[in-house]
Amino acid sequence: MDFTPVVLEGRHVRLEPLDLAKHWDGLRTVGLAPELWRYTSSKVTSEQSLRTYLERALDEQARGVSVPFATIQRETGRVAGSTRFGNIMREHRRAEIGWTWLGLDYQRSALNTEAKLLLMRHAFEEWDVFRVAICTDALNERSRRAIERLGAVGVRLATDTCPCSVSAASR
Question: Phi/psi class of residue 30: alpha, beta or left (left: φ > 0; alpha: ψ in -120 to 50)?
Fold first, then answer.
């Protein structure tokens, strides 16, 4: 499986491999609202903590366990947020989709749904993975409902950190 970052593009959204030289200004414009970080283990409260969060994603990419993207609204070309593949396990042909956040003006739009579908298609069709887990915090009802609208099958255990997944068999 070749996890080289590529651009994924749909009608509403373009996922570009994260590049802080290119995306930083847009990400810091939309990424500092406290509501975006309420259900995450990463507590982003400043430009520096946002930069550290994004640099960690790029470090994980360099180690081959993550592929982070900037989420771009195609209509305007503006950065809307970020998402990524993470916890990539080559030996199990498995990846997670998560670490997703969109600026407040972009929430409840077609961007997130289309981004998830692009990521799943890429994982199953290009990487030939067996399982894609779509992760969110168990308390994040809004995100859980959005994931379930994609047709994900939920496993709800108190210890789960990643409650919804789609496998090749359920596609």
Answer: alpha
Q: What is the pTM of this model?
A: 0.88
> Could you identify the residue written with the tokens 């609202």?
33
* 85: β partners: 67, 97
Tens digits of pLDDT across the chain (171 residues) = 778 899 999 999 999 999 999 999 999 999 999 999 988 888 899 999 999 999 999 999 999 999 999 999 999 999 999 999 999 999 999 999 999 999 999 998 899 999 999 999 999 999 999 988 888 887 888 888 878 777 776 644 334 445 444 444 444
| CA 147/CA 100 separation, integer angstroms | 12
Q: What is the dihedral of CA 115, 119, 121, 125, to 10 degrees?
A: 160
Q: How is the beta sheet containing 153-154 ordered, strand by strand?
A: 8-9, 13-17, 67-73, 78-89, 94-102, 131-134, 164-167, 153-154
Are the beta carbons of 83 and 8 closer than 8 angstroms? Answer: no
